[in-house]
């Protein structure tokens, strides 16, 4: 991760400047930040949180409030040569944003970079939220599942091709044996033909008186030889076609059996599933929007309560800056607060009750969304199975039609060849009869020798064609086998891709747990929390029901070990942690998400606020620790806490002013 952060730091501009109008409690200001840590130092109610909100607004977050007495607000951030702008307007009691912020989608930053008091990741530990769900929320698991299905289909196609190659390779030994046998037969025929031709040449017949008859006889013999050769070729062609038809009919039986085992699919069932999936997707999207809106509303109201807390008395003798008795101020602030949307006064306990109701509603929506996701996965799986079955059915039907067409074509060729065979047979009979009429007793032996030579030449020619055909088939198979290495390499690549996809979610979970445990261990050692020995996340797998299925799902269980004064260790719970210990644990969990999802590559800022529960010395250590992982770290601290920070950092003490001190 450090190498990635080094690259992020090299790309970080040397200076960032922020311009703010009417955000939070700020009227107008301009501040600049150097890379590294920047401390916003001041007392409560000095607009430090408002400045952090302004940074969030320019970066793209919607978790921002408009100044109560303003109708419009603006946040503008200059980073290097780029400028990012965001405007806020009050319309019909709601805040509408516009402009070109740094981020198109602020989800990662809202979860793991903008660590204000109400930050969901930071508060997840204390509230006992599902830590695994929070870490995995930015991961598009549906897209990963779709990629897995696509890779599985590609791998199956290659497996089928390799199986076909194995089948072809298995035919090679039989073809080679057959070729050897045919080659031996050719050699025998060549020897027989050579002997027959020599015997014919040695025959001495007186042909002077019947030269004309002999010439005609020899012409007829030559014609007989050619005709017989044509006849045998036709017979071979018929035999080959019949063998092909037999093989095709066997294949047809296999294809029909496969077709009977498949289904063409019910179109109405497919349409129904697609409609249900679309409806569930819409419901899930609507729930996600509602959850996001609920979370934003919860955070706004929590910030509203925090920002309008009573100002503690100072050294002016028990009165506030305007001379009003402090007790009156405290009483007023404890009873009412100013609504951020309409500017009216609202009872504090009413807002707190509303926040609790919103949290309950948000949890219900999360559970409802989880159920919809499970049902959606199940219906997608069912639809995928139906579609795959339909696709295979159509392919098998096309193959069956192709086999039927090929059988019909070959039968037509057999019919045509049969007619040719009958015609050639008649020609052979006529030629033999003519030769019988022409031959004389003196030439009967010559005729027999001619017939023998003709037959041997024909047999030899047929065997040579058979050998050439075997050579072509073997060469074709060997050429196909040359594809095996390429196919196996492609299959290995797809297998690796499948492994990566299947383990990607597991890897992210493992990295998150490892990051949390490592940084928690480091910080506990640095911060020295008395008898707190160890805090870690234990990742376990358990069976849960999703719809009608049971699936394995990871769970993040937070473990705490303390020790007694005499050194005995015992397991504790989050409820028994001090407020300081809970705050540190929540911050480390947010840091783990920040590093696992490489948020520093997405947004260069991390914001910290509301660290008062932690003592000054430990705050200083936290700032130093976090600063090493973040291009720009902006921290809101009380004056006494800011003075304890020793790491080299910038300081901003005046916020609502055009001349903020650096």
Task: Describe what this molecule looks like in 3D.
The chain is an alpha/beta fold. The protein has a domain of 160 residues: Rossmann fold. It is built from 16 helices and 15 strands. The strands form four sheets. The protein has a five-stranded antiparallel beta sheet with strand order 2-1-4-5-6, covered by helices on one side. It has a five-stranded parallel beta sheet with strand order 7-13-14-3-15, sandwiched between helices. Helix 4 crosses helix 13, helix 7 runs antiparallel to helix 10 and helix 7 runs parallel beside helix 11. The longest helix is centred in the middle third of the chain and has 91 residues.
């Amino acid at each position: 991760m450090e190498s990635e952060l080094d690259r992020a730091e090299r790309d970080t501009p040397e200076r960032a400047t922020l311009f703010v109008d009417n955000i939070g409690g700020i009227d107008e200001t301009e501040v600049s930040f150097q890379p590294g840590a920047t401390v916003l130092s001041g007392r409560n109610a000095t607009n430090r949180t408002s400045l952090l909100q302004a940074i969030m607004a320019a970066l793209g977050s919607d978790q921002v409030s408009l100044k109560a007495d303003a109708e419009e607000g603006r946040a503008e951030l200059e980073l290097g040569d780029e400028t990012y702008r965001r405007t806020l307007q009050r319309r019909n009691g709601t805040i509408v944003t516009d402009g070109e912020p740094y981020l198109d989608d602020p989800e990662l930053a809202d979860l793991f970079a903008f660590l204000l008091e109400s930050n969901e990741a930071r508060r997840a530990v204390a509230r006992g939220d599902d830590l695994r769900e929070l870490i995995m929320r930015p991961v598009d698991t549906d897209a990963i599942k779709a990629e897995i299905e696509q890779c599985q289909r590609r791998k199956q196609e290659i497996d089928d091709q390799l199986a076909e190659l194995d089948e072809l390779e298995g035919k090679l030994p039989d073809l080679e044996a057959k070729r050897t046998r045919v080659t031996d037969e050719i050699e025998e025929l060549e020897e027989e033909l050579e002997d027959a031709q020599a015997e014919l040449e040695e025959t001495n017949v007186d042909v002077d008186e019947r030269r004309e008859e002999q010439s005609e006889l020899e012409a007829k013999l030559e014609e007989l030889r050619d005709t017989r050769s044509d006849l045998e070729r036709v017979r071979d062609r018929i035999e080959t076609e019949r063998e092909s038809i037999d093989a095709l009919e066997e294949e047809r039986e296999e294809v029909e059996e496969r077709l009977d085992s498949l289904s063409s699919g019910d179109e109405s069932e497919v349409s129904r599933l697609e409609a249900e999936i679309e409806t569930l997707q819409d419901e899930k999207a609507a729930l996600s929007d509602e959850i996001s809106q609920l979370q934003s509303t919860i955070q706004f109201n929590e910030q509203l309560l925090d920002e309008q807390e009573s100002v503690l008395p100072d050294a002016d003798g028990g009165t506030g800056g305007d001379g009003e008795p402090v007790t009156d101020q405290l009483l007023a602030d404890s009873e009412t607060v100013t609504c951020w949307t309409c500017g009216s006064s609202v009872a504090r306990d009413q807002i707190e009750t509303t926040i609790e109701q919103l949290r309950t509603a948000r949890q219900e929506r999360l559970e409802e969304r989880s159920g919809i996701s499970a049902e959606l996965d199940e219906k997608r799986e069912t639809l995928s199975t139906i579609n795959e079955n339909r696709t295979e059915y159509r392919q098998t039907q096309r193959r069956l039609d192709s086999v039927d067409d090929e059988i019909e074509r070959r039968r037509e060729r057999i019919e045509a060849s049969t007619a040719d065979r009958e015609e050639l047979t008649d020609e052979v009979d006529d030629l033999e009869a003519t030769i019988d009429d022409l031959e004389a007793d003196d030439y009967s032996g010559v005729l027999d020798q001619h017939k023998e030579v003709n037959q041997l030449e024909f047999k030899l020619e047929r065997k040579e064609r058979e050998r050439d055909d075997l050579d072509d088939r073997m060469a074709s198979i060997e050429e196909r086998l040359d594809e095996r290495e390429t196919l196996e390499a492609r299959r290995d690549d797809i297998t690796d891709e499948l492994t990566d996809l299947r383990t990607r979610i597991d890897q992210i979970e493992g990295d998150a747990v490892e990051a949390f445990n490592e940084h928690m261990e480091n910080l506990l050692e640095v911060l020295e929390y008395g008898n707190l020995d160890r805090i870690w996340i234990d990742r376990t797998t358990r069976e849960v029901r999703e719809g009608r299925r049971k699936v394995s799902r990871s769970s993040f269980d937070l473990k705490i070990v303390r020790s007694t004064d005499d050194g005995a260790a015992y397991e504790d719970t989050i409820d028994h942690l001090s407020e300081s210990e809970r705050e540190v644990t929540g911050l480390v969990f947010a840091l783990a998400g920040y590093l696992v999802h490489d948020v520093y590559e997405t947004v260069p800022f991390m914001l910290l606020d509301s660290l008062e529960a932690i003592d000054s010395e430990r705050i200083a250590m936290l700032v130093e620790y976090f600063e090493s992982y973040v291009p720009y770290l902006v921290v809101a601290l009380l004056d006494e806490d800011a003075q304890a920070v020793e790491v080299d950092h910038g300081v901003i003490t005046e916020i609502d002013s055009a001349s903020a001190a650096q």
